[in-house]
Every structure is written in structure tokens, then in C-alpha cells.
Design goal:
The structure holds 2 protein chains of 2 kinds. Chain A is an alpha/beta fold. Helix content of chain A is 32%, strand content 27%. Chain B is elongated and about 95 Å long. Classes of the chains: A alpha/beta, B alpha/beta.
Amino acid sequence: MLANGSPVPANGPSLLLRGLRKAFADVVAVDGLDLEVTRGECFGLLGPNGAGKTTTIEICEGLTAPDAGTVELLGLNWAGNEKELRQRIGVQLQETQFPDKLTVDETLRLFRSFFHRGLAVEESIRTAQLEEKRYARVGTLSGGQKQRLAMACALVGDPELLFLDEPTTGLDPQARRHLWDLVDGLKHAGRTIILTTHYMDEAERLCDRVAIMDHGRIIALGTPQQLIASIGGEHIVEFAITGHENGDGLDPALVTAIPGVQSHRVDAGVHQLSVRELHTAVPRIFAALTGQGLHLSEFRTHSATLEDVFVDLTGRNLRDE
Amino acid sequence: MSKLEQASLYQLTMVRFRLFWREPEAIFWIFGFPILMAVGLGMAFRNRPPDVLPVGATAVQLTQALAADKGLTASTMNVADGTQALATGRILLLAIQEPAGVAYKYDETNPDARIARMVADRAIQTAAGRREAVHAENQLVHETGSRYIDFVVPGLLGMNLMGSAIWGMGFSIVDSRQKKLLKRLVASPMPRWQYLASYLLSRLAMLVIEVVGFLGFARLIFGVPFRGSIWQLGFLCVLTSLAFSALGLLVASRARTMEAASGLMNLVMLPMWVLSGVFFSATRFPAVMQPVVRALPLTAAIDAMRGNMLQGMNLGQLAPQMGILLAWLVVPFAISLRIFRWR
């Protein structure tokens, strides 16, 4: 670990968390978290609501003090380096409402004035694609535009490290894609980005690496491809069977015995198999079911996603609430 | 951008101005309301020629005797009508002709009625031939500064400075906290003291408009006197406004919702509206309450302003009031800096 104030090697981690712990009353929000994010990386904290993502990111942002553990940003601790760190990071919080009666331009001018160096207001407006709304009052913006304004406020200090807390929650699909393009652009400009989300497609689309969080812990860490590969099969087969009164009469051992089938689970009457090679496994599945005299009412396949990883790890869906 | 425009304190203060000017209701309450209040009170308590008191009498010769006095208007009526007129306030006194002389029917607790009793008796005795034992002559004083409007204008000024400071601080701080804007600002490199300072700076700037507008109006329309130094009055206004800003900051330092904040603000201001002598002298409260009443910032502010405007007192003579205001500035400010909730 680096001592305070010592020169930071250019390839040192942007963010380093060790043994992070935080409890609110008797609820443990973050339960022993270790994490390292390297420079230039777009890192995602993925998990259901209440997994501890926001607490974790707010500890990183120096807004919440951890009960235990160390936090290092750009090689610096919060204690004693707050002024410098605030100059070097950009923050977007969940649910910030900027004053309705200020214009986009005025809001950005205000935030720009807090930083010693940074982007020109015009440039941050251009990056957030709010040119047409520059002199419009914040109260007249759509949800997506407000979120892009929040992004512009986070960017206006030209941060080395950018925190985005659920940047697309509550947005319609089009506004989400718009924001994704924006994050893509920032990524390609080489910024280090740490974002939280409970949308697995968002994490898959944007993040170089993802940590899946549940109950305050990281239960899986890796690139989206690694995580998907970790569940054994790259494809998911889902089917349902008609007929029987007590369950559907399918013995799980029968399907897991099929070569190429990695795992089996049942959710609301739908069987889910993770499968390595679709073209060899599917005919065998059909054959096995027909051999048992079972009739299919549904059958579909999709490529495995982070959602399937989460289901595989926890037995729950990401958005089970 | 110029150097000034890049300064965060400038930007924060400008934001305060913009948000204020874009809120028409706030403008009315701060600038319009006190003037309307002064107009209303000025009309109600306008300087009239000495009141002509309406009285009634049951006999024509009594009516003539009463009407001979310039301070009375008299009409003849029977006892039943007269009693009815007394009850509804159309007359203040009824003179009843009786075999042995005259009886006066009036409400002794009404000061006007007591005056009517004295004037009516004088008129009737004079008509009956009474002569003054001692020759007396009147020297009338017509002086501004002793009218009710002169008394109430400093009171309204103090009340307005209290309201604008406490509402101005309280609502916008709690609103920013509720909307998580405070938390967002704290996540930026904004120096926290500048946030609070921007409120004070914008308050002071608006204070100029507020005070000059209101006092200018009171001077032009009612001829309210300024016997003390205008600069010292300005200083008193600044001190008052800062003291109430500190109190507003304290009120806003923890509240998470607007409802909680407005409850607290009313809790703070209501006792002062009643006790601090805005509309009548605070000396009317019983002696046991006086230490409390005197210690309230609004009482100190209004006393100091009346001292300056009506009695021409200088700051040295107003030191006790200024001391109280200073204490109300320092203590709440120090407490709120310690307990302020930034998120």
C-alpha cells in the first residue's frame, strides 16, 4: 500500500478496497469487501437492490465512513486528502435533483467553479449532448436529459476517476441506450469509470469487468465473458412440460445425465439447463423427453447472460423483490 | 469567463439570487407584504382630527347642550333605542333625563366612552351655568413620531427582517437537503463555508432592497421620522438580519423535510410575533415575563430600531440591544456549524 502523499505510479490501481465493512443499525450493508480497479477500466458493481452497491460506492466517494477497512483512490486515502481527491474524481449520485429554476448552463457553471481545472462548460454540454437544452431550465428537461446533466456535472472537473450510481435507473429504453453511448465515449477517452447497476444487460454492455454483489459481499468477479463461462454452459435451454398433476414427472437426474448439460434448475414450472454445445445437446434433450413420454409445452434457448450467472450463484433472479 | 465568474463563491451567490428572483411568491412575501401591511395599518390608524364622539340623549335640551361641545355629536332618542345604539356601538354614551338631574349610561371599560362621559358632563354642566374655577388654556402639540404608524413601522421592519432571513435560509437549505442536492455539492470540491456564506451574501444584498424599499415607502407616504443616523440604522438592519440568518441556519441544520422545517420555523417565530412588540409595546407584558421578552432577538431589534428612528439614539445608547443581537448571531451560528447535516 502507498503511504499518503507519496508519488503514485502511473499503473497503480485507481481504486483499492480492503476489508470494507459497514453496518446501519443492525443491517450489514457491506460485509468484508476487497476490490481493485485498474486505470482506464470501466468497472461495474452489479447486484439487486439492497445488495450494498450504493453504500459501497458512497464509501468510495468519501460520503460515508466505513466501519472497518481501507479505501484508496488514486493511491490516496480520504483522511487528509479530501481536498485533492474531490478535485480529481467525478461523482454522479442517485436521485440528485438539481434546482428546477436554474438553466443547464447555470448549473454547469456552478459545478465548474468548484474545480481548479476541468472542461469548459460548452465542452461538458457537448459531451452530454445537451446543446439544444443549454439555456433551458432544468425543470423542463426529460428524465434522460436530467441524467445526462448529472453526468455533465460529474464530468465538468475532467475527473481521473468517475463514479456513476445507477445512471440509467428509471429511464426509458431509448434514453438508456443514449446514456450507454455516452459512457462508451468516456470509456474510449480512457477514463476510469466505476458504475453500479441492477441491469445485467447494462453491465454486460458497458463494463470491462464486473463484480456481482449480494448481501454486501462480492460473489463473483471477472469480465462478463469469464463470468458467463463460469456457469459451465454458454447457452441456456428453457422448457416446460404439459400434463402431470404432481409436478411434471421429470426426473432431474435424467437431464443432467445428458452429455453437454452442465446444470439444471426449475423456476415456476420452467426447467432451465445450462448447455455447452446447443447443436449436440438439444437433440439429446428431445430424445430423452420423448423417451419418457413427456410432451413439451414450451421450448426456447438463449445465450447465457449475467442474469443467468446471478441465478446460478444465488438461486434468485436479479430483480426478485 | 472572467476571474469573478470562475469564483465558486460568486457562482453560489448568483445561484441564490437567480433562485430567489425566479420565485414570484417569495418576492411578494419579502418585498410586497410589509408594504401592504404598513398601508393597511396606516389607513386603520391614520391621523384624524381629534375624535368627535357620538352620544345620545333622551331630551332635546340635553341634546342641544351636548351638541354645543365640538367634541361631541348628539342625537335624541328614547331609552330603549339608546340602549340598543349603545350595544351596537353607534353611540358611546346615553344621557338620560331624570327628575333629579341626568344619568349617564356607558361602558366604563371603553376608554372612548370614559372620555365621552367627561366631555358630556362638562357640556351639560356648562349649559346649566357652571363656570371654571381656574382659567385654563390649551397648547396643542402636532408632532410626527408619536403616531401609531411611527411606532409600528420599526416593528414591521424588524418582523420582516426576521421572516425573510429565517424563511430564506430555512426553506432553501432544507429543500436542497431533501432533493439530495446538498449531498451532491458535498461530493464536489465546493468549500462548505462558501455554501453558507453565499446565503449570507445574497441576504445582505437583498436586505438593501428590502429595507430601502420599505422605509422609503414609509417615509414618502406616512412621513415616518428618521431621527437617528441612517448609517447606524443600516448597521442595525444588517446585524438584525445576520442574527436571524444564524437562527434560520440553526432551524435548517438538521431538518430533512420541508414539513419539519416549517414547523420549526413557526415554533421559533410565533412567540416573537406575539411577544416582541411589533404592534404594541412589549412593556405591556407582566414584569415576570420581561426578562424573557427582552432577551428575544426580535424585541432587541425592534427596540433598537425604535430607539434610532423615533428617539434618535446612537449605537452607544443601543449597546444592550446590540449585545443581545450579537449573542443571537454567534451562538446559533456556532451550534449550526457543529450539527449541520450535509446529506
